[in-house]
Write a structure and sequence with these properties.
Elements lengths: L4 E2 L8 E6 L6 E6 L4 E5 L4 E6 L6 E6 L3 E6 L3 E6 L3 E7 L4 E7 L4 E6 L3 E6 L8 E6 L4 E7 L2 E6 L3 E6 L8 E4 L6 E6 L5 E6 L3 E6 L8 E4 L2 E3 L5 E3 L2 E6 L6 E5 L4 E5 L4 E6 L6 E6 L5 E6 L14 E6 L13
Antiparallel strand pairs: 1-30, 2-3, 3-4, 4-5, 6-7, 7-8, 8-9, 10-11, 11-12, 12-13, 14-15, 15-16, 16-17, 18-19, 19-20, 20-21, 22-23, 24-25, 25-26, 26-27, 28-29, 29-30
Length: about 325
């Protein structure tokens, strides 16, 4: 088993998102607070390309059909075409917090703190790009798209589920079972439900209408402190294994845990990262996990380790769920 390694030339300020390419196992996109978007070859440990065309922190980035998209505090949606030049697709009236790309319709989806969800034709030039604008009740914190489903997590703990072929109204509206604000929402590979994480060291596993499984929630990313009180950390990131459908969570405790949602068990606990885990993603084959260790300021301004990205090779069986005992 080869050891995990640290990527060379990491961002110089907070890492906001990591995304592996949906089919190319080696391409890794990274957005960060230093106003840059970077493309790495994770296997060769090489920075392939980058752009600095945002005027403020970049909060999310996503692969498209021939390049990538990004958005953040400057409220602009940028297309990075062929990883060589950028153009502005459109803009929001508030900061852009989340992006997803639906390849079947060449559609880019953007969520913002201006309480809107917008859809863009990624191929259109100029003002014709926006194809939908949906008002939602609260600021959008996190989004996840898979096939024709989109999950949108709002500031008020609501989760909206959309069919991306018909965006006029959500097909389901949920209130998260977690009592504290949502940090991350991620749709299951089966599209039967989603996993939601909160700032208060909890994760919920929730199934959509029609699924036969029961919802549940559990505590995680906590450390025992004095007087039988736990030190509770935000759970910042969730990522599903593409083959085995187990999932990892990353917390501000600097640890990553691997969970089996069907058997409701923790399979692995990876400790020792320098600081908070801000983002996670598996590559398409599931044989690499990218981990962003980047202080997320839950304890305010303080000295902290530099931002780093770790590539953890995953063996064939490491993320496999355990067989149920009879």
């Amino acid at each position: 088993m080869s050891k995990q390694f640290e990527l060379l030339q990491p961002p110089s300020d907070g890492i906001s998102k990591l995304r592996f390419h949906p089919t190319d196992d080696t391409k890794l996109l990274v957005s960060s607070w230093d106003q840059q978007v970077r493309l790495y070859d994770a296997q060769q440990n090489q920075l392939v390309a980058s752009h600095h065309d945002h005027r403020a922190a970049v909060l999310d980035t996503v692969f498209g059909s021939n390049g990538a998209f990004s958005g953040g505090l400057d409220r602009r949606v940028l297309a990075w075409e062929n990883y060589s030049h950028t153009r502005e697709i459109g803009c929001h009236d508030g900061e852009i917090s989340a992006l997803e790309y639906v390849s079947s319709g060449n559609m880019l989806l953007s969520g913002s703190w201006d309480c809107t969800l917008r859809a863009w034709d990624s191929r259109a030039q100029g003002g014709a790009a926006q194809i939908a604008k949906l008002d939602v009740e609260e600021r959008i914190y996190s989004m996840s798209a898979r096939e024709t489903l989109l999950a949108v997590a709002l500031a008020g703990r609501k989760i909206l589920i959309y069919d991306t072929r018909k965006l006029d109204a959500p097909i389901e509206v949920r209130e998260s079972s977690l009592k504290f604000p949502t940090r991350c929402v991620k749709l299951m590979p089966s599209s039967l439900g989603f996993v939601c994480s909160s700032v208060e060291g909890r994760v919920s596993v929730e199934y959509l209408n029609g699924a036969t499984k029961s919802n549940y929630a559990f505590k995680c990313h906590r450390q025992p402190a004095e007087d039988n009180v736990d030190l509770v950390y935000p759970v910042n990131a969730v990522a599903f294994h593409p083959v085995h459908h187990t999932f990892v969570t990353g917390g501000s405790d600097g640890a990553v845990s691997l969970w089996d949602p069907d058997n409701k068990k923790r399979l692995k606990h990876y400790q020792g990262y320098p600081t908070s885990i801000s983002a996670l993603d598996f590559n398409a084959s599931g044989n690499m996990l990218a981990v962003a260790s980047s202080y997320t300021y839950e304890e305010g301004e303080k000295d902290h380790p530099p931002d780093s990205i770790w590539i953890k090779p995953m063996t064939e069986n490491e993320a496999r769920p355990k067989a149920k005992k009879n």
